[in-house]
Design a protein that fits this description.
By secondary structure, the chain is mostly beta strands. It is built from one helix and twelve strands. Strand 8 and strand 9 form a beta hairpin. The protein is globular and about 30 Å long.
Amino acid sequence: MRVVSLLLFSALVGCTPGAPPAGSGSAAAAATTIDVSLTSSSVAATAYGSAGGFAPAVTTIALGTSVRFVNVDSFSHTSTSISAATFPAASPFGGAALNESGSTLSGGWSSGTLGAGTASQPLLADKTGTYLYGCFFHYSAPMRGAIVVK
């Protein structure tokens, strides 16, 4: 009897007028994770220069998608935006890269220092374009990547 009542309740809740459809809302919003690891992500040639340490090295996402960086390594890293069309030869980062900032790709951001097993704040792909980024600690490794928003 309890099983029948539970099934009837579930069916009624699913058909409630004005209720959001299953799978809608912020939990179902598009999200992309970029792995951060100096040791497991090899260096690759990209249209922007050598990249590595982030997987994938170039991530293509749709407008409106959120991105999070997850440190799957045992070293501390950052993911910090670079305002350039190609990767600069020398590190473009100052001490501000060590502090979390920003919430959109177009506004510039830094994850701040990500310890092992930690994740960055979500970053909204709010405008189309190409966004370069790198690691404050390992930029010359080269620990760099790109996000292309279409």
